[in-house]
Amino acid sequence: FRPSPIEMPARRLNADWVLPVEGPPIRDGAVLVGEDGRILAVGPADAVPDSAAPVDHFPDAVLLPGLVNAHTHLELTGFEGLVLEEDFPAWIRQVRALKAERSAEDFLVAARRGLADCFAAGVTTVADTGDSGAVIQALHEVDGSGIAYLEVFGPHPADTERQLTEFRRRVERSRGFVTPRVRLGLSPHAPYSVSGPLYAAVARWAEAESLPLAVHIAESPAESSLLAEAAGPFAEMWRARGIPLPSLPGRTPIEWLESHGVLSERTLCIHAVQARASDLARLARHRSGVAHCPRANRRHGHGKAPLREMLDAGVRVGVGTDSVASVSPLDLLAEARSARNLGALNAEQALELCTVGAARAIGLELEIGTLAVGKWGDAAVLRLPAGVDEPALADSVLSCGPGDVVATFLAGREVWRV
Known about the structure:
The chain is built from 15 helices and 15 strands. A seven-stranded mixed sheet has the order 3-2-1-4-13-14-15, with helices on one face. A hairpin with a 2-residue loop joins strand 14 and strand 15. It is globular.
């Protein structure tokens, strides 16, 4: 990454509390953001250098790093309450049918609204997957921050070359929206929607160009049954479409990814609910990240991801909201609270999952996720109850929701304020 070519006036942010995430909370703290959008100083207000920068003071509030959402589908904004199927394969079919009714402009309007909703919820960076190409354009338009993983589908091996050729065309169309803070990634969707040869081809392409990868994996029992036993509802769908079933003996979904060369430190594995201990060892060995979406997993009846075991194995994990077609409204701190309960975490550990932990999971921890000198000046300001002291600070922050967000800053630039 290079500093943004768009320079803004320097800005000083003061609050009753500053929570850098890596480092102790700072009472009556301040953050100074330079003209290039990078943090110049963090500390007690009387220790942060004075400057000619405008001062924004937030009483009864905490200033923390802008939240990092490790998995979104912002092009699906507007589908709240429309996707009602409980059976997961049927739910997927309903989402596909709704998407087929949208135009390119519809997707762009949805992506813009979804991104605005993120800012209003204190989220400054997203790792988004979608096939319309709308999200990377929406990010570009607002000088945003994130990775837009462009999806490819194609479960029949015979379609590999055709799908890959068309996918390359779509990727090339999106490259013009890349900026120092908006990255383009590739996303072979899932093992039930992408063939092994197509997975392998996309993985080779990503490695050759050092592009990030994201894949929905080990999400549902139906997916595991397809790959392990060539059985279950996805197998039935394949038979009906004349698609060759996986060969037996089968593999776990994560073993299947490894066999096709998909796992690497650039790979984000979305969900990983059905991961076994041996799968977690593979993820750790390849240094692949995981996007954990506990509320969506619960909504679809997938079960509980082995979050504590992931963290103990050294896997890089961040939380994500998934899409409004699964859970609405999108509330990243609610995801962190769910993860806390699932993994028996303390409040500080749970907050890391939507700040520096999520930044690590998507490979951006050197740029975002904490308030530190040299990182981007991304920050969220949350309203606090009166009289919060240091021992209760993290719990108080974790109990907040989108309605408690007072302001959001991206590289020192205000993108949301009540």
